[in-house]
Hints:
Blueprint: E1 7-18, E2 21-32, E3 36-40, H1 47-54, E4 64-72, E5 75-76, H2 84-90, E6 91-94, H3 105-115, H4 122-132, H5 136-139, H6 152-165, E7 170-174, H7 182-195, E8 200-204, H8 208-214, E9 217-223, E10 229-236, H9 237-242, H10 247-253
Parallel strand pairs: 3-8, 3-9, 6-7, 7-8
Antiparallel strand pairs: 1-2, 1-4, 4-5, 9-10
Helix pairs in contact: 3-4, 3-6, 4-6, 6-7
Amino acid sequence: MTTENEVVLKVRDLNVWYGSFRALKDISMDVKRHTVLALIGPSGCGKSTFIRCFNRMNDLIPTTRVEGQLLFNDVDLYAPSTDATEIRSRIGMVFQKPNPFPKSIFENVAFGLRVNGFKGNMEEAVERSLRQAALWEEVKDRLHKSAMALSGGQQQRLCIARALAVEPEVVLMDEPASALDPIATLAIEDLIRQLSQRYTIIIVTHNMQQAARVSRETAFLMVAEDRAGYLVEMDVTERIFTNPKHERTEAYITGRFS
Length: 258
């Protein structure tokens, strides 16, 4: 049983439209603090749309309409008084492809801190973030070299360090390893497990084995006849993969449909 103080994100009857197209319908769930929640489901079921609701990224898409309730520490994310910029510093985002800025490694990590008017020791903050992203030892002697010279896996860990620098509570990851080789992917997965001790992480993945390896809970989304994404079930990951409640979940996990 989830107690009230364990829940960091509450979703109630969430519906998202892009113009006249409904991308998500009637989704409700609780996301626990300091856990890893994996979102799985076929392409087009709205997984990316769903996580972008949490940091208001969908606001940047014209004609988007969000209905329902999303609470972050019991604060309504879509209340008129809620500052979307502040929300994005507390709910960080890591995208599918590494997207470092064409700046030095140091400046990539420092960017968000500078934007937020950070007054502390910048060197210490950058080092702390790079250590959390398990990248410090690899880059400490070239902090002022271009981030673009890093490998793909290193660039993705740099993007994670950049997200962590502003000390968010939640980190959203949209298929963070899909563009990486198997070795870099395992490094990212190890990192996710470590970070879950301090952060709440929601990861979108098409890789069933990855979801099983890194997450504590898994939510399975499907596409309805009207092409809107909806939540089939959400449960402890082990149960989802060994004894799901719904036949559709089992069929998807076992590869009988995608």
